[in-house]
Amino acid sequence: MFIDCNHIALNNANDLLPYGTYKSGIMDGEKAINIYAYPSSDYPIVNIPYELKDIDYNTLPPGHYMVVLAPSRKIMYLVESNKIKASIPVAKLVEKMVNEQEELEKLKKRQKIEKKYKNNPRKRPRDTTELEKQADMEASIQDTDEDYYILNYRNGNIQATGYILK
């Protein structure tokens, strides 16, 4: 009588080993794009190529600044390394209304996906709400022929415009 030892060892591998077996390879959470990706921010970033000066001859060098709208919505701040470098008064503010029906549809869609992949979360598609939020932000600065710059800010449903004197 011939006994296949390899077949027995493969069927009972979990019984013979003192530790469990795991699937080899890289899991979704261990991929480099998730670990080393730039952390998301709640505010848009603007590249200012100009040297900005105020009345007291204080200067703001060219660089990348985060544009933060104050909770009062009357001032925009230019922030670098979590320090406020400049404040710009808001001249124009547009706040769009949120459509309640669209928000409910998004919530139902998200709940449907969670329910579908409840038993197998590894096959669930990645949640792209943060990426969509990042794509919905924008800040820019324009040089005009007059004696001021225009700073535009858009974050979700809020748009603001401020003017910076040259």
Short description:
Strand 5 (75-80) and strand 6 form a beta hairpin.
Main features:
single chain, 166 residues, alpha+beta, 7-stranded antiparallel sheet, two-stranded antiparallel ribbon, 5 helices, 23% helix, elongated, disordered N terminus
Layout of strands and helices, then pairs:
Blueprint: H1 5-11, H2 13-16, H3 32-35, E1 45-48, E2 52-53, E3 59-60, E4 63-69, E5 75-80, E6 83-95, H4 100-116, H5 129-135, E7 137-143, E8 148-155, E9 158-165
Task: Please provide a written account of the structure.
This protein has 166 residues and is α+β, with helices and mostly antiparallel strands. The protein is built from five helices and nine strands; from the N terminus they run αααββββββααβββ. The protein has helices at 5-11, 13-16, 32-35, 100-116, 129-135, and strands at residues 45-48, 52-53, 59-60, 63-69, 75-80, 83-95, 137-143, 148-155, 158-165. The chain has a seven-stranded antiparallel beta sheet. A hairpin with a 2-residue loop joins β8 (148-155) and β9 (158-165). It is elongated, with a radius of gyration of 27 Å. It starts with a helix and ends with a strand. Mean pLDDT is 80; it is low at 1-14.
